[in-house]
């Protein structure tokens, strides 16, 4: 028996991260003993219950742990698969852009930045017409569809389908890769399920949005943010923003990108929950940022804002 875990783990605010880190500290077939909680009537709203813990292990970590034995006081787990990856990106990264403009400046600049690094990579550009460039690591795909509503997410699925590297990165064309981001990513290493940097405005050189405030905005609109955040398996970094998603290619087979949803239907929130429900983890790197120079971060024109408010009030009348 390598580890005996006290029932204090039932008070963990991020039980997913707890078991994610635990799985990476064990070798195959090692055993751990968990002291059960004596809160038999607690259904998990204030603290994780025994039944919830077993549910999470049997459903979310079924490929990592198995319940080897159990009695009234303890739960014995066996590690059947340690989820770790090689530290380096020797098996590569597929960088995929969705765009309507093959020659978008961000894509050109990102390809130029990638050429500065000794990195096993390829670039897929999903657009509406084909072109060719001298860089043999860049592939272009034509994607034209009359279903405009689902176009963005169908293009993302096409990136996943055609990716040939261990990692796949899906990006909107307002995302810009630069030397600083790539250098920090390489230094961070390849040992993650899904990787999430901060989002910085290239114009303002400040954070604009991230998984943390995406989580807040997504649920505050339903009026359930504070209540759902109290659950021990939900936290501010539980969600990944759909404009930049970097993760292991094979995990996209287990956590299918929801291209049945249209952009704006919280498809990234749905995908993030699928990541956690399958026992994988989103690693938030607060020491790295990816740049964005899209329309959503333009300086706000206060006069135009006032005009829009007045116009909406008049329209209501």
Nearest-integer average pLDDT: 77
The secondary-structure class comes to: alpha/beta
**Biggest β-sheet, characterized?**
9 strands, mixed
State which percent range the strand residues make up.
15-25%
- The tally of strands reads 13
- Overall radius of gyration: 22 Å
Any idea what the CATH architecture of the largest domain is? Alpha-Beta Complex
What number of domains?
2
Shape assignment:
elongated
SSE order: EHEHEEEHEEHEEHEEHHEHHEH
Distance between the termini: 72 Å
CATH topology of the largest domain: the name is Spore Coat Polysaccharide Biosynthesis Protein SpsA, Chain A
Give the helix tally: 10
CATH class of the largest domain: Alpha Beta
Q: Share of helix among residues? A: 25-40%
Assembly state: single chain
Low-confidence stretches: 41-45, 210-214, 218-233, 296-300
Which properties best describe this structure?
alpha/beta, Translation Initiation Factor IF3, Spore Coat Polysaccharide Biosynthesis Protein SpsA, Chain A, 2 domains, four-stranded mixed β-sheet, 10 helices
Structure, described:
There is one protein chain. This protein is α/β, with parallel strands linked by helices and 317 residues long. The chain has helices at 15-23, 50-60, 105-114, 151-162, 179-188, 211-220, 225-229, 251-254, 267-277, 302-316; strands at residues 3-5, 31-35, 65-70, 74-79, 93-98, 121-127, 138-142, 167-172, 175-176, 194-201, 207-209, 244-248, 282-292. The longest helix is centred in the last third of the chain and has 15 residues, at 302-316. The chain is elongated and about 65 Å long.
């Amino acid at each position: 028996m390598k580890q005996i875990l006290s029932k204090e783990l039932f008070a963990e605010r991020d039980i997913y991260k707890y078991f994610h880190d635990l799985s990476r500290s064990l070798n195959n077939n090692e055993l751990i003993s968990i002291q059960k909680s004596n809160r038999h009537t607690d259904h998990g709203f204030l603290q994780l219950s025994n039944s919830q813990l077993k549910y999470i292990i049997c459903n979310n970590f079924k490929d990592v742990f198995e319940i080897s034995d159990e009695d009234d006081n303890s739960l014995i787990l066996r590690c059947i698969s340690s989820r770790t990856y090689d530290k380096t990106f020797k098996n590569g990264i597929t960088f995929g852009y969705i765009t309507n403009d093959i020659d978008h400046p961000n894509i050109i600049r990102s390809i130029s930045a990638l050429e500065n690094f000794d990195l096993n990579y390829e670039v897929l550009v999903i657009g509406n017409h084909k072109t060719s460039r001298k860089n043999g690591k860049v592939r272009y795909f034509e994607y034209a569809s009359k279903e405009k509503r689902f176009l963005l997410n169908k293009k993302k699925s096409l990136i996943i389908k055609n990716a040939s590297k261990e990692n796949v990165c899906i990006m909107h064309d307002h995302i810009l890769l630069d030397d600083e981001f790539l250098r920090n990513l390489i230094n961070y290493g390849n040992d993650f399920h899904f990787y999430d940097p901060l989002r910085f405005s290239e114009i303002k050189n400040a954070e604009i949005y991230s998984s943390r405030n995406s989580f807040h905005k997504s649920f505050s609109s339903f009026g359930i943010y504070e209540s759902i955040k109290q659950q021990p398996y939900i936290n501010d970094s539980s969600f990944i923003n759909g404009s930049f998603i970097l993760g292991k290619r094979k995990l996209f087979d287990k956590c299918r990108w929801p291209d049945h949803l249209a952009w704006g239907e919280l498809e990234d929130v749905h995908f993030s929950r699928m990541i956690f429900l399958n026992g994988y983890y989103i690693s938030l790197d607060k020491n790295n940022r990816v740049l964005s120079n899209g329309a959503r971060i333009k300086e706000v024109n206060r006069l135009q804002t006032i005009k829009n408010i007045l116009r909406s009030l008049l329209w209501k009348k």
